[in-house]
């Protein structure tokens, strides 16, 4: 063991060597390798699915606690709600981060696979580092130019047709499995480059990776439990941007690495999607009724908020022209004013009539007037 990382590199190289020995095809070897790795990592996938089932089973209790503190956004209340949620998680033996293992372990696998792919003499052919250096020195002194980015791949491509001629320099080549990286128009050991004249077929691998990753994300979401909070987050603009960012980042990385890495990503996206569908059928997420949520609210002592009484009084406008009481008062004042004016007119009319008519007859003169008559 020449490096501490050989603890991971050597077993991974052995898997690819075994897969190539069985298939005699580098593309199929990567497919078989991906399938074996997914089987090895399947316990993490099962744990992730069970964690989602557990989270779904707590949905009524989580909703009840959130409803208990609904409408109060101050920091103290929010902290109290989070503490109550964490206490409930601990009581129910649920870890919110329990399903992240599969995601965290994928990145180290990519790094290990990259080192195995670009160093096939060491990890696939199982040639010691000292013999690799001897081969490199011999070829360089013979006038062979080796690509510094893929030295070991260039060495294999140069010695593949006449391996026996180099066994004196590297005895380990005697019984080594020498892979052929070319599959049809694809040399999976090379780094994809954008070129149309001549057409570089390796460009298609990053494009296929992008399409497969987008479809895989959309299908996986349908078979993955999402709490109401996470569902809202998924619909947010930032999450939609992230859904497109990760595949685009993968495309960029693939233009910096050997094409075999992109092939692995394609196969892994397809297999992991099928795996997610299978686990969702084997470990289905529970569903709850409205009564289940009501029971959880009663258990959490959530007080039912009484609906506010409707204010039957008319809404007062800031403008008097829309105020009914003001209009009524103004009408009453107008009527009173009209009555006063009418009374004044009537009084004024009687006075005028008295001035123009005959003088009134006194009571003591009535009898005299009658006698005269």
Which key features would you list for this structure?
373 residues, 64% helix, two-stranded antiparallel ribbon, elongated, 2 strands, mainly alpha
Structure characterization notes:
With 373 residues, the protein is mainly α. Helix content is 64%, strand content 1%. It contains 15 helices and two strands. It has helices at residues 6-23, 26-57, 59-68, 75-91, 101-118, 120-123, 129-141, 151-159, 204-222, 228-235, 237-254, 259-282, 290-299, 324-356, 366-372; strands at 182-183, 186-187. A two-stranded antiparallel ribbon has the order 1-2. Helix 9 runs parallel beside helix 12. The longest helix has 33 residues, at 324-356. The protein is elongated and about 145 Å long. The N and C termini lie far apart (160 Å). Residues 365-373 have low confidence and may be disordered.
N-to-C terminal Cα separation, in Å? 160 Å
Spans of at least 5 consecutive residues with low confidence:
365-373
The coarse overall form would be: elongated
Category by helix and strand content: mainly alpha
Compute the number of helices: 15
> What is the alpha-carbon Rg in Å?
45 Å
Mean pLDDT: 81
Estimate the strand proportion.
under 5%
Biggest sheet details: 2 strands, antiparallel
The SSE order reads HHHHHHHHEEHHHHHHH
* Overall helicity: 55-70%
Strand order of the largest sheet: 1-2
Number of strands: 2
């Amino acid at each position: 063991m020449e490096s501490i990382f050989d603890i991971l590199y050597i077993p991974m190289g052995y898997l690819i060597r075994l897969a190539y020995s069985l298939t005699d095809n580098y593309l199929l070897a990567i497919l078989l390798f991906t399938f074996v790795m997914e089987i090895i990592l399947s316990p993490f996938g099962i744990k992730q699915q069970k964690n989602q089932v557990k989270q779904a089973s707590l949905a009524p209790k989580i909703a009840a606690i959130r409803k208990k503190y609904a409408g109060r956004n101050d920091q103290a209340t929010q902290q109290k709600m989070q503490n109550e949620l964490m206490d409930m998680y601990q009581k129910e033996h649920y870890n919110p981060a329990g399903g992240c293992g599969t995601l965290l372990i994928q990145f180290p696998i990519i790094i290990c696979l990259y080192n195995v792919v670009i160093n096939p003499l060491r990890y696939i052919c199982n040639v010691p580092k000292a013999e690799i250096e001897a081969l490199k020195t011999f070829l360089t002194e013979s006038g062979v130019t080796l690509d510094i980015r893929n030295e070991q791949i260039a060495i294999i491509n140069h010695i593949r047709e006449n391996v026996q001629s180099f066994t004196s320099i590297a005895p380990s080549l005697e019984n080594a499995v020498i892979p052929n990286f070319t599959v049809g128009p694809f040399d999976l050991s090379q780094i994809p480059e954008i070129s149309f004249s001549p057409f570089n077929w390796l460009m298609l691998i990053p494009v296929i990776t992008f399409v497969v990753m987008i479809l895989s994300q959309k299908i996986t979401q349908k078979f993955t439990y999402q709490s109401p909070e996470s569902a809202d987050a998924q619909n947010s603009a930032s999450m939609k941007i992230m859904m497109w960012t990760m595949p685009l980042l993968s495309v960029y990385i693939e233009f910096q690495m050997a094409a075999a890495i992109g092939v692995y990503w394609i196969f892994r996206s397809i297999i992991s999607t099928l795996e997610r569908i299978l686990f969702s059928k084997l470990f289905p997420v529970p569903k709850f009724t409205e009564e289940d949520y009501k029971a959880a609210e009663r258990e959490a002592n959530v007080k039912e908020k009484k609906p506010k009484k409707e204010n039957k009084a008319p809404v007062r406008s800031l403008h008097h022209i829309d105020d009914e009481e003001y209009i009524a008062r103004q009408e009453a004042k107008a009527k009173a004013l009209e009555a006063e004016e009418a009374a004044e007119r009537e009084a004024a009319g009687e006075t005028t009539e008295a001035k123009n008519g005959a003088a009134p007859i006194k009571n003591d003169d009535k009898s005299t007037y009658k006698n005269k008559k």
